[in-house]
Amino acid sequence: MAWELIYWLICFCVDLALFASSLYQYVMLTDLEADYLNPYELSNRINQLVVPEFIVHIVFCSFFLLAQRWFMFLITVPLTCYIAMLFVKQQHLIDVTEVFRVLNTEKKCRLVKLGFYFSLLAVIIIRIAISGILIPTAGSEELDIRASFLEF
Amino acid sequence: MGTENPGHPNFTTRPATAPFAAPPQNMMPFSSSGPMVGQEASGFRPPPHVTQQTPFSSSGPVVGAAASNFGPTPPVAPQTNVPFSSTGSAVGAQASHFRPTPPGRFHDPSVPPPPTSSVPPSVGPLSRFPTPQYLSAAQAPPTRGPPVGQMPYQPPPGQAPFQRPQQQIPSVPMGPPPQSFNSVPPSVNALQSPSDSSFPASLPNSQTSFPGFPRKQSSADSQAPPAQSPFLTHQGNYAAAPPAVSSPFAAHQGGYAPPPQGAAPLGMQSRDHMQHHGSGPPVGAVQALTDDFSSLSIGSVPGSIEPGLDPKALPRPLAGDVEPKALAQMYPMNCNPRFLRFTTGAIPSSQSLSSRWHLPLGAVVCPLAEPPDGEEVPIVNFGSAGIIRCRRCRTYVNPYVTFTDAGRKWLPGDYFAHLDATGRRIDLDQRPELTWGSVEFVAPTEYMVRPPMPPLYFFLIDVSLSAVRSGMIEVVAQTIRSCLDELPGFPRTQIGFATFDSTIHFYNLKSSLTQPQMMVVSDLDDVFVPLPDDLLVNLSESRSVVETFLDSLPSMFQDNVNVESAFGPALKASLMLMSNLGGKLLIFQNTLPSLGVGRLKLRGDDLRVYGSDKEHSLRLPEDPFYKQMAAEFTKFQIGVDVYAFSDKYTDIAALGTLAKYTGGQVYYYPNFLSTIHGDKLRHELARDLTRETAWEAVMRIRCGKGVRFTSYHGNFMLRSTDLLALPAVDCDKAFAMQLSLEETLLTIQTVYFQVALLYTASCGERRIRVHTAAVPVVTDLAEMYRQADTGAIVTLLSRLAIEKTLSHKLEDARNSLQLRIVKALKEFRNLYAVQHRLGGKMIYSESLKFLPLYGLALCKSAPLRGGYADMSLDERCAAGHTMMTLPVKKLLKLLYPSLIRLDEYLLNASSEADDVKIIENRLPLLAESLDFRGLYLFDDGFRHVLWFGRVLPPDIAKNLLGPDFAAELSKVTLCERDNQMSKKLMRILKKFRESDPSHYQLCYLVRQGEQPREGHLILANLVEEQMGGSNGYVDWIIQVHRQVQQNPTFIKQTRCLICRVVEHYLPGKKEEVIEHYFEFSHGSTPCCRVEDVEERVATMHRFLDDSVRHHRRTE
C-alpha cells in the first residue's frame, strides 16, 4: 500500500534525523576530548539539541504506537523511558563544569544511541523495501493510484 | 649470616655440629661486606635477646645489605635466628633463604646491586649452616621424620659446608616443594599445625600455594640477579620429589623461597616458621623474642601493635608534617616538595603493580607556595629567542634536559654552549633553568590572548538588615580601606563596589567626583548596568573617592531594615561589569538569597532526609544557576571568594559552588559578630587582598610517556582534559591529581613531571612558572610503600572522600576511606607475610605509620564527621570547600591539631628561646593529655582554643583574664594585660599566628566542664578519643587490623554489623538502635547483658565493639 510506503519513508527520515543528531553529539564529544572544542561551546551546542531530540524521539515512538506497529513500538519504548527519566531528574543537559568527569559515560551513551538508531534504520529500510516491492503485486486499486500519481 | 651464630650455640651441644664451629671465621669477610648497609646492620643487632646472637650481629650486615632496599627486613633477621636455636631443621631452611635474598633484593634500579663478589662469601657461610643444621635436625630430633626423608636429597653434610659455590645445592633439597614458594600465608598455616602433629595436613597447603610461585617469579624484576635462576631450576627438578613425609619441610622452604621478591618477606616468613617449629617447648621463648622484637621495631621499620597495647606506643605525628627526603636526595634538581609532592616517590612499572597499590597514585601541586624568606623562584627572560620547549612533548627547558648533538636538535642557535671537561655546560651557572627545579619564564606575546589584565577587585556587599546588625559592613569597609595601599599591582589596580538588599546599588567612583554617586537598579528580572564605565575605576586615580565611599558605607546603611536579598541578580550584574577585564569578585553575603534568579530555599531542616539516599543532595546546589554562573565567571577570568556570615542557614553548598569552579575560596563565619569575629575577618580579608595573586591563569601538568593524569581535585575548572583554568590563584591553594598508567608496562627508568602555570603577575607581566620533578620507576611494590608520602596521600584521600560525600552518604564516604586504608595495609602485610595465629601484630610501612591515624582524623573531620547532629549542614559544606583547597601541611595540621601545655611555660621565667621548644612540645590528642591543673592551647590552624583546667592555679587565670577570671569564659575576651604572664601568652600566640598566616586563629577560651562549649570546641576535636559513634585511636587500629586479617569479602560485612548500630544512633532513631542492639547481643554474646537499655544506648558502640572482640576470642 502506498500509505505504508509513505509511512515508512517518514519513519526513515525521522530516524535518520535522530541518528544524525546522535552522531553529531558524539563527534562533538570526541572533539572536546581532543581539545578542538572548549566545554562552553560544547555544552552550548549539545544542550540546544537535547530537548528537540527528546521530542522527536517521543513523537517517533508514539508514531509507532498510533500506527499500532507493536514490535517497533516496544523496541523504542525503553529509550523513551530512559529519556523521560533523565528529563525528570534534570540530568539531560550537559553540565559545563563537570563535562570532563562525565565525558566517557556521555560518549558511551551516544554510541549506544547511535547503534540503536542505526539498527532501527536497517529495519526501516527493510520495511521500505518490502512495502515498495509489495506495491506492484498488490491489487489494481493501488496500481491505479500509482498510475494517477505518475500521470500527473 | 645471622643463622650462623644462633646455629652455633645449638651445634656446640651436638657433636655433629662441632666441626662447624669454625665458620665464624669465614664470617669475618662477610661482615666486611656487610658495611654497605651499615645503618641497618646496626639496627639488626637486637642482641638484647640472646647473648648467643652476638654472631648474629656479624651476620646482620649481610641481611642489612639486602635490607637497604627493604626497610622492614631488619626485624626479620633476628627472628630467624630464634628458630635456629629452637630447632635445627629450621635453620637449614632459613639459610637457604638468605642466600637467594641478596640477589632478589636489588630490584630497584636506583640501588646498585651489591658487588657480586661479596655474595659468594656470604653464601658460603650460609650454605654451611644449612647443611649442618640438616644434620643436626636429622640426628637430634628423632621424632622428625621429614628431615630424614630429605637426607637423600642433601649432599653429604661434610661437603656442603665447604662448598661455597654450591650453596644452592643445599637449598635445593629444601626447595623441593616449589609449591609452597609463592604464598607465604598459606605456607605459614601449613607449618603451624602440621609441624607439630601431622605432616600430611601440611601437604595440601603447600600445594595451594604452588600456583602462586610462578606468578611471583614472573613479577620479579627482570633485573634480578642470575642467582635466582639456578634456584628455580633446582626447584623444578625437585618439585616432583617431595614425598608426603617431607612435605612439612617443603612448606618451610616454600616460605623461604619468596626471597626473590625481597629479603624482608623472607624474614617475616622465617619468623613464622620459627614459631611453628618452636611450638613444642620453645614456644614461650620464641614468643618472648617476637614480642621483644616488636617492641624494638616500633618506630623503626615495620611497626607492630598488639591489640590492646599501650596507646602511648601508637605512632603519632607530633612533629607535624615531614616532607619525604628520599626523592629529593635521589634527584637533587627536583623542585621543592612544597610545590609538588607525590603520593609515592616511585612510579609502578606496570598496571598490575599499580593496581596493588591501593592508595591513590598522584600528586599534590601548590604552584605558588610561599618560599621561605630569601629563597625566591628565579625569573628567566629569554627575550626575543622565545621560551625554549621541546617541540614534541611541549615541555619547558629544565634541569633534566639532555643535550645531544650539541643541542642542535631543538634549541635555538644562541642557546648553544660548550661543554667543559666534565661534560657540564660552561654556562650552567648563569642558567637557573638548567639547575633549578622551579623557575619562572617571562612569557612573550604568543602566550597571551589579550594584553595582560590589571589586578581588579570588585566587592559585592550585602547590606540587608542582618548584615548591618552583625557589624560586618563596618569591618569590611575599614579593612578594605586599610588595604588600599597594599593592593598588588599599583598603579594599574582597578576597583569597584556594589551593594545589594532587595535592590542593587552601584557606585560611580569617577575620579572627577568628590562624592561617590549611588545608582539603584530595582528591576531584578532584567538587570542592567547603569553606567558603561566609572563603576570600575583605577584605584590610584580615584583614590579619594574610593576612600570617601568606604568611610561612608557603614553609615549609609545603618538604618536599613530591608531583609531581602537579591543576590542572584547582583551576581549577574557583577558579571556584566567585570566581563571585560576579569579579576576577583569578593562576595560578602549575609542573608539567604530570596529575590530574583538564584533564589534559595531553606533546606536541611527535614530530618527524614538525613541518613537516606537523598542526603547528599543537600550538599549540592539545588539550583543550576550557581553552577552556570560559576562557569561564566571562569570564562571571563573572574575568581570568586565567598565570605558568608549568616547566623541562619545560608546554603553554603550553593554559594560555595561559585568559589569551587573559579579557583576561589569560601570563608564562613557562622553567627558573625564584629566584636568577636572582627579580628578574624579583618586579618583574612586583608590577606586575601594583599597576598600575591596570579591572574587569568591556566595550569597544566605534563608527564612522561606511558603515564597520564586522569582526574583533578580542587577548586578550578577544567578547560580541556588536562588544562586547569584558574581565574585567580594564590599561595594558599593546592590542587590534587591522580594519575594512571597508559601502558601495561613502562620501559623507562624515570618519569618526569612538569607543572606549568601560565599567569599574569600583578605587575602586568605574563609569566610561566615551571616546576620539574623526576620520579624513578620501580618494579617492586615494597619500594613504592617505602617511598610513600603520607601527607600527599592524606590530601588526596581527603579530597576524594569529600567529593564522595557529594554523591553518597557520609557513611559510605567513611567506609570507602577505611576500606582503602585496610586494603593498602593488607597488601603490605601480604608483602611481608606474618603469622596468623600469633598475628596480633600490625604491620605497616614506616612511611605510612601515620596513615591510620590520619584516616581516623579524616573520618572525624568536619565534612565527614558523624551524622546530622554532629555538624550543621553549612559548617560541613564550608569545611568541605576549605579542605578541597588546603595545601598538605595545612591539611595535616587541621586533621591532627597541636595541643600544647602552657601553664608551666607561663610560670617559668624563660627567654624567647624557650618559645621554640614549647612549640615542639606537642601532646597526643587524648583526653588524658589534659591535666585539670593545666592550661592548654589547642591549635588546628584555623582557631586557637585555650583550655583552662578546673584546678588551674587562680593566679594564672587572674593574670591572663583580669578581674573577671571567674566568669563564664564565653563572655571573656583575651587581651594583653599589664603583667609578664599575659604578655608572654600573647607573644606566643602571635608567634603561632605568624607561622601560619593563611588564616587567622581566633582565640576561644573554655574552662573544663563548661558544657556544651567544651565539647564542641575541644572534646569533639580530640581525634584519638572515642566520641559519638566513632572509634578511638586504639579501637580504630584494632578494627583496621582485624579487617586487614580478614579476607576481603568479609570486610564489608563486619563493618556493617558494627556500623549499622552505631550509625543509627541519630537522635530520631533510638528505638531502632535498641532493636538492633538486642538483635545483636541476643544472638551472639553473653558479655553485654542489658539491665538498663536506655542507659546503655549511650555507650552502646563501645559494648558492641567489646562484644565483637569477645566473640572473636571465644571463637
TrEMBL record, chain A:
Localization per record? Membrane
The UniProt entry lists the main location of this chain as membrane
Instruction: Check the UniProt entry and state the signal peptide residues, or none.
Output: none
Pfam families reported in the protein's UniProt record: Cornichon
A cellular component term from Gene Ontology for this protein is: membrane
Q: Which InterPro entries match?
A: Cornichon
Kindly give the membrane topology term recorded for this protein.
Multi-pass membrane protein
Q: Which family does it belong to?
A: Belongs to the cornichon family.
Q: What is this protein called?
A: Cornichon
* Protein species of origin: Malus domestica (Apple)
From TrEMBL, chain B:
Q: Per its UniProt entry, which superkingdom is the organism in?
A: Eukaryota
Q: Where is this region: Disordered?
A: 1-281
Q: Which Pfam families match?
A: Sec23_BS, Sec23_helical, Sec23_trunk, zf-Sec23_Sec24
A Gene Ontology molecular-function term? zinc ion binding
Q: Locations of Low complexity compositional bias?
A: 11-24, 57-68, 217-230, 239-256
Localization, UniProt: Endoplasmic reticulum membrane; Golgi apparatus membrane
Sec23/Sec24 helical domain: from which residue to which, for each copy? 789-892
Query: Domain Sec23/Sec24 trunk spans what residues?
Result: 452-688
Domain Zinc finger Sec23/Sec24-type residues, every copy: 387-410
Which UniProt keywords are present, listed alphabetically?
A: Endoplasmic reticulum, ER-Golgi transport, Golgi apparatus, Membrane, Protein transport, Transport
Q: Where is the composition biased (Polar residues)?
A: 78-89, 180-210
Q: Which GO terms describe its biological process?
A: COPII-coated vesicle cargo loading; intracellular protein transport
Primary location: endoplasmic reticulum
Query: What InterPro entries does this protein's entry cite?
Result: ADF-H/Gelsolin-like_dom_sf, Beta-sandwich_Sec23_24, Gelsolin-like_dom_sf, Sec23/24_helical_dom, Sec23/24_helical_dom_sf, Sec23/24_trunk_dom, SEC23_SEC24_subfamily, Sec24-like_trunk_dom
Domain Sec23/Sec24 beta-sandwich per the UniProt entry, residue ranges = 694-778
- GO cellular component assignments: COPII vesicle coat; endoplasmic reticulum exit site; endoplasmic reticulum membrane; Golgi membrane
Q: Which family does it belong to?
A: Belongs to the SEC23/SEC24 family. SEC24 subfamily.
Instruction: Write down what this protein is called.
Output: Sec23/Sec24 trunk domain-containing protein
Organism (species): Malus domestica
